[in-house]
Specification:
The chain is an alpha+beta fold. It contains four helices and five strands. A five-stranded mixed sheet has the order 1-2-3-4-5. The longest helix has 15 residues. The protein is globular. The termini are far apart.
């Protein structure tokens, strides 16, 4: 397997959304993905991008990606917020997630972020075990909150 990690580009967005939908199905929420391709592209590659990412590809086919944005903590300063890291099911267990996560860590260091934060579903043991390899702290104290505006 010859995997290349590179920064995401606008042309990747269609495939990234396919992987987002695959993740949503895995997380038992297939109908929750409502973002359009146009909005996704504009948000990452428009005049004022709000997300950045890396893709993992083999022979010009994207097998996985990691997408992040900048979160500001009044206690810690700028931190990378990992929104999603996804490897297509058929390519899992081959080290692609590690390559993507290592690229995120390097990016965070280069941009002088004070850390990386993310969420993981409590039942997603494969993901939790992956993050534990990085000595990640799992915080069970905070409750997720959101408001949907439409």
């Amino acid at each position: 397997m010859n995997i290349t990690i590179r920064k995401a580009e606008r042309k990747d967005c269609k495939r990234l959304l396919e992987l987002v939908r695959e993740l949503a199905a895995y997380e038992k929420a297939p109908n929750e993905v409502t973002v359009t391709l146009e909005h996704f592209e504009e948000s990452g590659f428009g005049e004022n991008p709000v997300w950045w990412g890396f893709v993992a590809e083999e022979e010009n086919f994207i097998l996985g990606f990691a997408l992040y944005y900048i979160r500001y903590s009044t206690w810690k300063g700028q931190r990378m917020y990992l929104e999603d890291i996804v490897v297509t099911e058929s390519a899992r267990g081959k080290g692609i997630g590690k390559l993507l996560f290592d690229a995120l860590i390097e990016e965070a260091k280069e941009k002088k972020f004070k850390g990386i934060v993310w969420q993981v579903l409590e039942w997603n043991e494969p993901a939790i075990n992956f993050y534990k390899k990085y000595d990640a702290k799992l915080d069970l104290e905070w409750v997720n909150c959101s408001i949907d505006l439409s």
